[in-house]
Design brief:
The structure is a single chain. This protein has about 425 residues and is of the alpha/beta class. It folds into two domains: about 240 residues, Response regulator (Rossmann fold), CATH 3.40.50.2300; about 150 residues, 3-Layer(aba) Sandwich (Rossmann fold), CATH 3.40.50. It is about 40% helix and about 15% strand. The chain contains twelve helices and 14 strands. The chain has a seven-stranded mixed β-sheet, sandwiched between helices. β13 and β14 form a beta hairpin. α2 packs across α11 and α11 packs across α12. It starts with 11 loop residues before the first helix and ends in an 8-residue tail after the last strand.
């Protein structure tokens, strides 16, 4: 599928009008040719079956021979590697099940559009995917600010919102957002693990926080603040930087004033790499640890470009297993599926999360049977029965829309590669 810019340039008033009209009218599915202002699909007409006969769809996005999912994510800009990775993983999962005949005889398709990690574009894209493209569900969104903007549109239209790449707490309110299904652990759980490891393993008490100045950064900051407060601590310094920029120097200087021993970073890979590099350049001797949203593979690459030793010793919390450990059945399945779909792709944490999210959607469809609809799909995933993805179990319930609570710990070694760790070591591997 082809990623395009969607309606990224629409002004706020126009976007608001689009949302109200689209949801009120429930516009039927239609497809567009490649234009700079709309999503693009390479799929066939939504009303034509494989034989060419017109067949009624039992639910939006569900046809006799296929089911259409939509994704609004960053495919350009400083967070683009996150959207690309999620898309790659979802497509690997869909292609895997399609090779086996699909889900109850239907092939799965993904229509992806670019929101550049900007909230207004996410609103416009989500509206277009629902009202114009008639997708069955939304999957693999990237980011807290974009999800905060898109979820009201999805909720109003009754469209499932599956596996967003964010650990924001607001998405875990199962009562307020009954259409949201989270795969990963939360930012609160990641930051709790960070503070626990820094204080317990290394005896660090002087901890600073640097975060992206938006809803994502503030979500991570609140998690870190709560973890520190549980231990009778508070940040020795706080630094900020604007979203979609690498303007981090002022924030790093603010951190240095607190003389921290450890720094928690909440941001995307480009600004986080710039912050770590600049901090080390000016002589800050602190441990750096960042959340999974950073995009681990992209972060390591960015740090290499800043200097051979810039990334050594940086810690990253993860919400999926180590992507090269094929002794884990789900990881082995992911690596096989990725090799089939994109032989040149390097396995990574983000595309593994995308694969798990795709497998989660497949599990929900399988539980519905042939007569699939959105209500059945959501009810199946919110069932107390665990969703077992080759040994990686996801547990949901009526009041719990987050499947995994597990946080993994990794570290960048001297040679710039990630290694899995259980505690923070004193020496670099």
């Amino acid at each position: 599928m082809k990623a395009t810019s969607g309606l990224a340039t629409a002004p706020s008033a126009v976007i608001a009008g689009i949302i109200l009209v689209a949801i009120a009218l429930g516009l039927p599915g239609c497809r567009t040719d490649a234009t700079p202002n709309g999503p693009v699909s390479t799929a066939a007409s939504p009303t034509a079956s494989a034989s060419g006969a017109v067949a009624p769809a039992p639910a939006p996005g569900v046809f006799n021979d296929r089911i259409l999912f939509g994704q609004s994510a960053a495919f350009s800009g400083p967070a683009s590697e996150l959207g690309i990775g999620m898309k790659l993983g979802i497509e690997a999962a869909f292609a895997e099940v399609n090779r086996a005949g699909g889900v109850h005889g239907r092939q799965l398709e993904l229509l992806s559009v670019d929101d550049t990690y900007e909230p207004e574009a996410a609103i416009a894209n989500t509206t277009a995917l629902i009202a114009e493209e008639s997708v069955f569900a939304l999957i693999g969104a990237v980011g807290t600010p974009t999800s905060r903007s898109a979820t009201p549109v999805a909720k109003a239209a009754g469209v499932p919102y599956i596996g967003p790449f964010t650990g924001a707490a607001f998405l875990r309110d199962a009562e307020r957002l009954p259409n949201v299904i989270n795969m990963r652990a939360s930012y609160n759980q990641e930051t709790e693990e960070m503070v626990e490891r820094l204080t317990t393993d290394r005896g660090i008490r002087r901890i600073a926080v640097m975060y992206q100045d938006d809803s994502f950064g503030r979500a991570g900051y609140r998690g870190a603040l709560a973890a520190l407060e549980r231990r009778g601590m508070s940040p020795v310094a706080v630094g900020l930087y604007p979203r979609n920029t690498t303007s981090v120097k002022t924030g790093v200087l603010d951190l240095r004033r607190g003389d921290p021993e450890g720094v928690i970073l909440v941001g995307a890979y480009e600004p986080v790499a710039a912050a770590i590099s600049w901090a080390r350049h000016i002589g800050m001797d602190a441990e750096f640890i960042t959340v999974s949203f950073v995009g681990s593979n992209a972060l390591a690459q960015e740090l290499r470009e800043h200097g051979p030793a810039r990334g050594a010793g940086v810690f990253v919390t993860q919400v999926v297993p180590f992507p090269s450990d094929d002794s884990i059945p789900i990881v082995a399945a992911y690596r096989r599926a990725l090799a089939e779909t994109a032989p040149d792709a390097v396995p990574g944490f983000v595309s593994l999360e995308g694969y798990l999210t795709g497998r989660l959607a497949i599990a929900g469809l399988e539980r519905c049977g042939r007569e699939v609809n959105r209500s059945c799909f959501l009810a199946g995933l919110r069932s107390p029965e665990p969703v077992n993805l080759d040994g990686f179990a996801l547990h949901y319930g009526r009041d719990d829309n987050q499947g995994s609570d597990t946080v993994f710990l990794t570290m960048i070694s001297r040679n710039g590669d990630y290694v899995p760790i259980k505690t923070l070591p004193d020496q670099l591997p």
